[in-house]
Amino acid sequence: MNTENRTGNGRIAAALSRALSRIAPRISPLHTGVQPASDRLLSPVHMAPGRDEDETGRQYVLPPERPDVSLNELYGQFVDISSRDSDHSTHDPVDEGVVSSRQSIARPFTIATFPTELLVNIFALMSRNHPPVYPDLDNANRIRRLGWLVVTHVCRHWRHIAVGTPALWKYVDFSMGPVWVPLILARAHELPVMIRKDFSYDHWGNKRRFPSELEVLKAHLFHTRRLSFAGDPGQLTGALQSLDVPAPLLDHLHLYFLQTSLVPPWEFSPRPFFASQHPRLRSLSLSNFGFRWPINLPISGLVNLYIRFFVMGRYHLSHDLGGLLDLVESIPTLQFLHISELQVSGNGNAGLWHGHGVVKIPHLNRLQIDCGKYPFFGLINHIDIPPGASLDLSVKVDPLGPTRSVGIDTQAILTIVSKHMHTVTPIQTLFFKYEGGSGSRNTYWVVEVLAWGVCVEGDDGSAAPDETPVLRLAGDSLSVSPVVELPSQVCEALPLTFLRMLSVTSACWTSAQWTALFSRCSALEHVYAAKAAAVAFVRAVSPPGAEGLVPSLETVAITGLDVKARDYTDDKGTSRGDVLVAWLMRRKEKQMELRRLRLISCVVSPDQIAAISGFVGTIEVSKSRDLGH
Amino acid sequence: MPTIVSVDDSTVPGEGSSRLLLLVSSDNKHIVVEEDIMSRSRFISKQVEGFEATSQRHAILLPFSSFVLNKVIEYCSHYRGYYLLEDDPDAAPPGRSPVREWDQEFLDVDRNMLLRIIKAAHYLEIKSLVGSCARAIADMIRGKTTEEMREILGVENDFTPEEEHSPSSKCTG
Asked: Which residues 177-216 of chain A have a CB within 8 Å of chain B?
């Protein structure tokens, strides 16, 4: 073997090879990412925290998959550098690099020695998650009110990095007062900033030695990317009118109406501002607003429109749906439309709205509607949803409507969903979620169906993909029957041929529903079931023949199941653990062995774990306990 | 920068499809790891790409201990084959990723270890691990006073008394 290294020092290399061959047998942690099931079961996965650097790392075993790997043979192929430190006579640059790097490790290790970008990364997370709150107020909580800005007072190095990184100063909240706001804007230099201002409170107070807030705003509008204003319509109108300078970078404007006076919420006239130069304005959010139609906002290039209508308690302003439809129709570039809390005048459930035709939004990518039943159907019946658009539909209990249930119109929703979901990416991940609770008037139930076009099995077996679902369907009800019926109906309506991940956390899911779904989803690979749904899952897999229902199933994650309990719907009263063992055994016999079973927060005995582990590739048990009954 | 020593034989015993890498820690421990596992490290990937032309085997010297290196390898092993948003340079900006439960347990270590892991992850260019560690450190010092931050992270207060007690320092940073 030619052991001439790139420094040309063959003598050293030969000596090092000899040295390495001596030590190789005792230093051979081989990482393959695969652990035998027994190892995972019996030993903690993590190393004990807080051990010193000098302690030996975790010992790894050679996996059975690669029995022919001889570490001595492998090490023989590498040139050892382990004893280079002892031979400094060559003054080889490579050696010096080794020695230098090792000396650097020996130095005291503190965060002060961190690379700048790591500290900036940490500060950026803090600035986003721990913003300052009224830091000029002089009280006992002053330091806590500084939020992340405290890092500028820890040491010179931190202050130097924080102050010298303009990107950390892009969030500007005028509630921080006349000292901090100009300072932050100065530190941001001319990077795009995101500004928030609540006009309902004068944070400048009587500090007249400072420029007025609007003067500061106008001076920095040229590098403002996002503007959020809150106040009553009169204040907002006045503020927007005074900002008569171009905002060439502005791409998001959020206006929030605060009920601080008796000014009617429809007295909002934003035209002067919109007539200014905002060539990049793409997103407009109007929260808590009411309108006097028609409003013709010159916002034809808008991509994202969110309108949350005024609602105070049970009081809604009724709107003419035709006005809203006209507005939507006037924005042909719209891609994301979100309408919330709309209350319409008249009966929105009946046919077309006062003769208004169906509105076409050719580029619509996502439609989100959450309001009561009548406006919901009024809108959905008047918008032509383009193929492939994702839907987020939430039908709420209508406080003013005669029917407090989604049940009556379930079929109408399902017809829309059934027709539309054949035009989107094939559904690969499907979640059913249920929640129940007590409201001010009655007990309510919420059912939520989420579907994604990608398959993701999360850390805990249930985590959702980090992207927008192609379908989110939610409804709340004061009676339980729609909640029980809806999942089955949705399953029938949706195309599930390509479903690979199914997650059910439902108190109402039955074993028959599991069986029916399995028969439709032959490509299913991952199942997550929680609590009552897990009980139903065990019942569904108990009969002989059930093992063949989902041949491609690879992983099952179960949460909150008492595996030791006996299920008395079965005449024999077999424990759930026995049922699982029998099911897994039958799958293994038919060459359909489950790759992984995860039991999370379950009641399970060591004997049951041992029995199950014989018929499954890997069993992982976490946060579980053995109650001993 | 690490020191890389090369030999000419590219044949690796074993029947797996992934090649093996030899990583050498600062405490002189030799760790053999499959290349697939370490592909999450952009640093290692770039090293391996650079070596492919020479058809030689390589040992990579790393300036952190085997204990830290083992933790990093444990992380990479866990996410072997997973797509993580933060590792994609074209994806969402750092810090916008979801908090993963496994990461929280994995990083439930003492301060020194956490600092060593983030430094190693930064060196190896594993963005997802850097992000998780940064989040853990940010959580650790969130809501703390300056004195508490200094104590937690072992930072020395090098402000002069005048700077420290000056109102302008407190207010204007």
From this structure: 179-180, 183
CATH number, domain of B52, equals: 3.30.710.10
| Structure confidence by residue, pLDDT tens digits, A70-112 | 444 444 444 343 343 344 444 454 455 555 555 554 455 667 7
| DSSP per-residue codes, B96-157 | -SPPPHHHHHHT-S-HHHHHHHHHHHHHHT-HHHHHHHHHHHHHHHTT--HHHHHHHHT---
Dihedral of the alpha carbons of A614, A558, A531, A464, in degrees to the nearest 10: -170
- In this structure, is residue B109 part of a structural domain? yes
Helices A156-163 and A116-129 cross at an angle (nearest 10°) of 70
> Is B95 within the bounds of a domain?
yes
State pLDDT tens for residues A291-300.
776 666 667 7
Q: Has residue B18 been placed in a domain? A: yes
- Going by their DSSP bridges, the two strands A366-372 and A343-344 should be labelled as unpaired
**In this structure, are residues A542 and A570 in contact, taking their beta carbons and an 8 Å threshold?**
yes
Q: Which helix (H) or strand (E) holds A474?
A: strand A471-477
CB A343 within 8 A of CB A321: no
CA distance A530 to A57: 37
Domain assignments of chain A as residue spans, ordered by start: 10-107, 110-167, 170-259
In this prediction the ipTM stands at 0.82
Alpha-carbon gap: A161 to the closest alpha carbon of chain B (Å): 12
**What pLDDT, in 10s, does the model give residues A478-493?**
776 766 777 778 888 8
**Minimal CA separation from A277 to chain B, in Å:** 29
Are the beta carbons of A126 and B67 separated by less than 8 Å?
no
Query: Does B161 map to a domain?
Result: no
Q: Range of B132's domain? A: 4-155
Strand, coil or helix: B42: helix
pLDDT digits (tens, 9 = 90+) for A32-45: 443 333 332 222 22
Q: Is B138 close to A129, i.e. CB distance below 8 A?
A: yes
Contacts of A125 in chain B (CB under 8 A): 95, 134-135, 138
B19 and chain A in contact, CB less than 8 A: no
Out of A284-298, A397-411, A431-445, the most confident range is A284-298
For chain B, the domain total comes to: 1
Between positions 56 and 95 of B, the ones with CB within 8 A of A are 57-59, 61, 63-71, 73-74, 76-77, 80, 85, 94-95
Q: Which of A174, A250, A248, A253 minimizes the C-alpha distance to A215?
A: A174
C-alpha A435/C-alpha A147 separation (Å) is 35
